[in-house]
Every structure is written in C-alpha cells, then in structure tokens.
Specification:
By secondary structure, the chain is of the alpha+beta class. It has two domains: 36 residues; 124 residues, OB fold (Dihydrolipoamide Acetyltransferase, E2P) (Beta Barrel), CATH 2.40.50. The protein has three helices and nine strands, in the order αβββββαβββαβ.
Amino acid sequence: MRKAIVIPARRGGRPPLFGTVAALLIGMTILVLVSLGWQRLVTRLADAAPPATAAHPGDVAQPVGRGQVRVIDGDTIDLDGRRVRLVGFNAPETWKPACAAEASVGARAKSRLRELVASRALSYRPIACSCAPGTEGTEACNHGRACGSLFAGGRDVGDILVSEQLAVPYACGRRTCPPLPRPWCG
C-alpha cells in the first residue's frame, strides 16, 4: 500500500497575495471616496457662508447723493451710471413678470424704493458678488452688475422692502446663488 501525500489546505483556498491586493484596493477606494466627500463638504460650506462681506477690506457704507442713484426696479439701481444688484433680498420683476401679481408687487416695490431714495439720507456699501473667481463685472456674473447694499436713513433698503412684504429675503453663498424665490405667482 502506498502512502498518500497530504498537502495542507490553505485558509479560504486563496493564495496569500490575494488578501494583500484586496486590502490595498479597498483602502484606496475608501481614501478616494473620503477625499471626494471632503471636497464636496468644503465646497458646500464655502457656498453656504454668508457673502455679506465688503468687496474690499475696509469698505464701509459711504454717503451718496440722491442724484447719484437711479432706481431700475425693486432690487437694482444705477449708481453713478454703474448698474448694481442690491443683495440680501429679491424683489418682484417689473420687466417680463411671470404673472399679474408679480407685476403689481414689482411696481409697488420699485415705487417704494424710489420714495426711500428721494426722502432719506443714503449710503452705499459695495459687496463682493457671489460668482466664480474672475467673473465679477462680466455677463457671467450677475449680468455684468456690481453688488452692494443701499442704506436709507441708516437702514438697509432690502430690510425695509422685506418688512413691507414688497420683497423676500435672498442670500447667496460665496460663489453661487440658489434659484431666485418668486412667490408672487403662487
């Protein structure tokens, strides 16, 4: 009778190198997923941060004369010939409104902003627009408009219009803005 040769079985039946390669692949996959998730989180946090920072360090609201300001609509002015989107709120559209209610409230918001400009001491503070780096002042950013806050009698005109239900609060992140709220058409 012949003796049988017994070869010890390997655990799991796989070569030892398989475990090392699998561990490396799993580790690399986790590393990639974590870094992608971290980048998304950092981007979201940066975009969610309030943009209400002055356009340049040291910028504060500066007095402006009534003759320097021309009202375009409830949230846009011309300041010394430069188109400015007032930030922190959204007023109804007066140009191509989506419905009759938006046209009506938009006309009232524009009229109220004109009253504020005509009747109170004004000041203006430039604000950095919420756009991709290098696009501020171009059509790719706010249709070429600058961004800022206008104060009438020391109060932000956006706060006044919102309190009178002629506008709604609207805050952008540092580089992007959410869709414009337009609740006037139901």
